[in-house]
Every structure is written in structure tokens, then in C-alpha cells.
Amino acid sequence: MPRRAASAQPLPYGFTEVPNCERSPPLGASLVEAPASRARWLAIAPEMKGLCDEAVKRRALKLLARGARARSAAASAGAPLYEAYIADRLDLDDPLKGLVVRQRDKGWLQGFITHTTFTTWTPHFAWDSQHHASGLKGLVGTGRKLDHGVGRPQRTPLPSPRPQSTQHPRSCKDRPSLAAPPSAGAEPRSPEPAASLEPLAEGLERCARSGDWRSTGIVWPRVAEISLLAALGCGDWLVSVVLEELARDDAYDFCVVCATPGAATFYERHGFLRVGAIARYIDNDGAAPAPAAEPGDDAREAPAVKPWQAYRHWAWGDEHRDSLRTNHGEPSYMMARRVDRRSGAAEKRGDALLRQRDQRLSIKCPRLAPGSKVPPTASPPPPPEAAVPPVTPSPAM
């Protein structure tokens, strides 16, 4: 399936003129738009690209002002999204939902977020935080919030029960921390405390999935994904609203995001943990691509696959080694969290957040005003077949 070509449409304003969203009151003098069609999302793709570049630039400048070195600031700020990747996600994500924040008087873009159902494009994929290829064990002790159980021996049998029922375990490692597999039937809306200690990778791996990785992708209907995000001061508000919307929807049990190491702290504030994801790609290096399998054709020999390696989100299952390294860079920094069902005080806070969203949605979006600094004409887009890495930039706070 070819990648969608990027658009070189110029913008009538420069993002250096766009102010950050105010935090008190939330969003300040900004409004919210919920694009109702895929065509509307594709129409604002050039603006989304410009906002991504500006968010990364402001994040790097903020880090430099705090005394960070230039190389460290650039690495922590992350890389901006490619315009071809933005258009690709807007074209293929199904369903495509999200919000857009704009300046109230001029209509300039200040933030956006999209979410969809998680989809993989490789025939062999697994959630596994204990596998050495996931890279999580190397993050133990770095201060990052990791999936439950990372760094502990895998499949360690629990100690045998002692006759003395009053004897306490000798250490916290002897305490059973994993929840038992769920029984058949519907799961409760409010997970039990023991269930929250179950590794996210185990819960994600049990989720149902279906589809053809060559055409429709392998769809995970119970897993939501925050696919695109960039913001100038409103990133926390956008993520909070999306998580609240997912909490009111029984369609999803988990929410995942392909982040960057620089954006890890931002997502950790919203309950996301680093989770392991591994994949096996078809071995096409030096060989002709394997023919597509026909329905009902069981006699066709399965193509050879490479060993398990760190997962690269949005990479095709039959990409060559050079393509994986050149077009997708480092392995994806996957993060996940459970979709919590609200109750009590949390539900009241969620109601207030959704009322803010509805009030901002009711404001009519003005016509896009031209800026005093018109950006230069964009450079020619890359070829449509070029794959691009899915890197989520750190929202400029």
C-alpha cells in the first residue's frame, strides 16, 4: 500500500506569530473545533505540520533557557512529524476522531489531537515487556515509569504455601502481585486493585485482533491509540479530554501512544507507562518479496521471518532492513495505560472538563486571518512510496 504524498500548500500565516494557549482559565481566548470529516482533517494537514515544527522548536528553546546543552535540548525536544506521515494517518486511521484548538479572533492553529483504533501492519507482533528485544530492562533505574514487573525474573514460580497461615512473606518479592486470568464473561467496569498490578503487556496481548496486515491492517478493537498530537500550551488539556471521552466509551479497555523519550514525562503525567512491543518482519533482504497469500490457499509456503526485534510503529511487515533503519529510525517508544471508568470525584472532574470542551465547541470558528510573517514556500515533498517514522513530538507547554 503506497504512502500518501505530502502537500506543499503554503500557509497564510507563520507559526512564530501564534501565541501559546493560556492555562488559566483553561484555553483562555481559544476555541475548539471537532472536524467532522476526513476531508476536513486532510485540508488542515499543512497547518498541522507547521504546528509540529513550531512546538518542537519552542520546546528546544525552553530547554536551552534552563541551561541544557544544545545537543541534549534537541534530543529531548524530539523530531517533528513528517507531513507525509500526518497525511498518511489522516488517510488510513479508522475511525478518525479528534479535536483542534484555534485562536478565537484569527483562527490560527494552537493544538490538535487525533485518536483511533490501534492497528499494526506486520504479521508477527506481540506485547511483551519482559522480552530482551523490547529494551525495557535497560531502562530499569533510569527514573522512567515502566510496565509492572519489568526487571523481575520472568515466570518465577510463587513460593509453596507454608503450613503456618500466620507466617508473613519474607520480602515483597514473595508476595503474589499478578492478578489471576479473568474468567469468561464481561469484566467489571471498575477494575479491582489487584488487576491494576497486572503487567499492561499481558492485558494488551490478551486483547482480540483481526485483519490482513497487507490491506486493512491487523485491528485491535479494544485498544485505542493517540495517533497525532502537537500543541502550544494546551497539550495536557487535549490529552485529558480524550482520556475522559474514552472513559465514557465502553468500546476500549486500553489506550496506547507511540511517544518519544523526550515526551515520556508528559505522558507519564497522564498515567501512561513504558510498555514492551516486539515484532518479526519478513526476511526480504537479498530475496524477492514473498507472494501474497490467497484465501483458502494453505499449501503456500510461509515466508521466512527475522528474529524478534523491537517494534517500529507504522512500518510494513515486509520492509527491508535498510528501510527500517533509514525511514523509521530507532524503535518506537510505546506507552500504554488502562482506560479507567470514572466514578465519584473523578467523574465530577470529568464532567467539568467535558463542559469546557462543549463551551469551546459552541464558539464559531472565524475565517483564517493572514499573518504579517508569511512562511516561505515549502520544499518539494518526498516521493509517495517513502516510508516515514511515526514520531510524536513533545507538546510545548
* Structural classification: alpha+beta
Helix content: 10-25%
Strand order of the largest sheet: 1-2-3-5-6-10-7
The CATH C-level name is: Alpha Beta
Q: How would you describe the shape?
A: globular
**Number of alpha- plus pi-helical segments:** 9
> CATH homologous superfamily, by name?
Gcn5-related N-acetyltransferase (GNAT)
| Head-to-tail CA distance between termini | 36 Å
Low-confidence stretches: 156-184, 186-193, 296-300, 378-389
Give the count of structural domains: 1
Question: Got a strand count?
Answer: 10
CATH architecture: 3-Layer(aba) Sandwich
User: What Rg, in angstroms, do the CA atoms define?
Assistant: 23 Å
Helix and strand element order: EHHHHEEEHEHEHEEEHEH
Percentage of residues in strands = 15-25%
Output the CATH topology.
Aminopeptidase
Mean pLDDT: 80
- Major sheet: 7 strands, mixed
